[in-house]
Amino acid sequence: QVQLVESGGGLVQAGGSLRLSCAASGRIFSSYTMGWFRQAPGKERELVANIRWSGSTTYYADSVKGRFTISRDNAKIMVYLQMNNLKPEDTAVYYCAAKAGQSSTYGYWGQGTQVTVSS
Q1: What span, in angstroms and rounded, lies between the C-alpha atoms of 109 and 89?
Q2: 61-94 in b/e burial notation, b at 16+ Cβ within 10 A?
């Protein structure tokens, strides 16, 4: 079982920055993939970025490339999402999620943290 707890959301003006944190506990294996998703009102949930628990492979949605950076701290069992040059369209609830190595779906989710970007 894996538990995920997000923090770091808030209200920021356009052009500002926030760093989201995800504290993971339980049985996290090196083969896991950690992802950040977001869901805005009236929109489907989308994958923003992900990173393997081992190695350096990352993925970013086109909408956040060059502005967001995903990283992890294996010692602290934390995953981060650094968000720079935020735009009003980044406003959403952001979720941390984990996917087992051979799974096609993310089976573990945090409770979400609200990010609001004002224009």
Answers
A1: 23
A2: eeebeeebbbebeeeeeebbbebeebeeebbbbb
What is residue 56's predicted lDDT score, i.e. its pLDDT? 80
The length of the chain is 119
- Distance, in Å, from the CA atom of 20 to the CA atom of 34, rounded to the nearest integer, reads 13
CB–CB of 13/115 below 8 Å?
Answer: no
Nearest Cα neighbor of 115 from 41, 24, 4 is 41
Is the Cβ–Cβ distance between 18 and 118 less than 8 Å?
no
User: CB under 8 Å, gap of 24 or more: what pairs does 60-65 form?
Assistant: 63/89, 64/90
Q: pLDDT tens across 17-42, in order?
A: 999 999 999 987 888 999 999 999 99
Render 7-22 in DSSP notation, one character per residue: E--EEEETT--EEEEE
Q: SS3 breakdown of the chain: % helix, strand, coil, rounded to 5?
A: 5, 55, 45
Question: Quick one: CA dihedral 28, 33, 36, 41, positive or negative?
Answer: negative
